[in-house]
Design brief:
alpha/beta, 6-stranded parallel sheet, Rossmann fold, 2 domains, 7-stranded parallel sheet
Length: 368
């Protein structure tokens, strides 16, 4: 039996809807006991979820154990609990909680649970540049953490620049969910319909997304661009829409429920994501599962989920040549249909929940 703690800051998850289905899948596996540990959460939880006691109780617990058991010196509540329960693996799902396992990392590898930390894009591409805390963590503990999980080969390569050994980094992309049947689609006839789904931030390159819409309009194409999401740079979206004269073409839709969004995706022709930084691109994958080809930038993990000129377009620039590629694909309904079919096949075979849970299980088994 492999015993695993899945550690979160808060549970259930409202902003990471793709994680709970994977945990439920892991819970079904014979020989694996996967328990959710959270520092905050609802008072009523499922049986496999354990909400840690409040801060003051944890401190009393830590003081008691340090007083009577020297082996627990300098360990926190989570670390002591994991040792007492003979946990094999602590999988830190919310990476900023890495400080909660530093005590264990100072113990001999064979006398403690193995430590796995899942990293999102900002943890690799951004935070170490501006945060001494993150930079020091990678430098001091990058080789002590038993495994880091990243979303793409690009993220894996980039993480090594902070001192993390390559053989400690494992690419396990997040999944969209269970595979399902869906028919490929044809493009809209009279209007090219684009959609984006992202958090409004500089990483998503709002300016180039809107510049592309502007140039398609000037190229003589009737275009509609709907944007779903919110964030601190929402004002930039409004400003550039006004500045570029795209009030009719660009509709800012705000945040939307994930299930409602998936039902709307088939109304569009392309998912647009011209990011400056992207570890993978979950919204791109989800759109592809619905038969929607993507137009993406040649950045981060995006080229790893797009087979250029097969299930989408990797845009190198905003030149007339690239605009013509988009126009030609949209106007050729039979070719577009093949892109739609390839989008479904590739995304659903590579990024389904069974693939992710299988890779996680393999990693767990390799560390024990």
């Amino acid at each position: 039996m492999i015993r695993v703690y899945q550690v979160f800051e808060s549970y259930p998850l409202f902003y990471q809807p793709y994680i709970p289905p994977v945990l439920k899948e892991l819970a079904k596996i014979k020989g694996l006991e996967s328990k959710i540990i959270a520092y905050n959460g609802d008072s009523v939880q499922e049986s496999e979820v354990f909400i840690l006691p409040n801060y003051y109780f944890r401190k009393i617990y830590e003081k008691f154990n340090k007083t009577f058991f020297k082996k627990y010196n300098n360990l926190n509540f989570l670390e002591i609990k994991s040792l007492k329960e003979n946990v094999d693996i602590i999988h830190v799902q919310h990476s900023f909680l890495f400080s909660k396992v530093l005590g264990l990392l100072k113990i001999d590898n064979n006398k403690r649970p193995k430590i796995i930390i899942t990293l999102r894009g900002g943890d690799t591409y951004i935070k170490p540049w501006i945060s001494k805390r993150w930079k020091k963590f990678y430098k001091d503990y990058g080789s002590q953490v038993d495994a880091f999980i990243v979303m793409s080969e690009d993220q894996k390569k980039y993480l090594t620049r902070w001192g993390v050994p390559l053989d400690h980094i494992h690419v396990i992309p997040i999944s969209f969910g269970e595979k399902f049947e869906i028919e490929p689609k044809y493009p809209n006839k009279n209007e090219l319909k684009l959609v984006s789904v992202f958090r409004m931030s500089w990483e998503k390159n709002i300016a180039d997304n809107l510049s592309l819409v502007k140039q398609l309009k000037e190229f003589g194409i009737k275009v509609q661009y709907d944007v779903y999401g919110d964030g601190k740079d929402l004002g930039q979206m409004h400003y550039l829409r006004d500045r570029f004269g795209l009030e009719k073409e660009v509709r800012i839709k705000g945040k939307i429920n994930n299930e409602e969004l998936k039902a709307k995706l088939c109304d569009y022709d392309f998912l647009l994501q011209l990011s400056h930084s992207e570890s993978l691109g979950m919204s791109v994958i989800e759109a592809q599962t619905q038969g929607l080809p993507a137009i993406v930038s040649n950045v981060g993990g995006l080229p790893e989920i797009i087979d250029n000129n097969h299930n989408g377009i990797i845009l190198e620039d905003l030149s007339v040549k690239e605009l013509q590629r988009i126009s030609d694909l949209w106007r050729n309904k039979d070719l577009y249909y093949e892109y739609s079919k390839a989008s479904i096949n590739l995304s659903q075979s590579r990024y389904n929940i069974n693939v992710e849970s299988s890779k996680l299980l393999n990693l767990y088994e390799s560390l024990i």
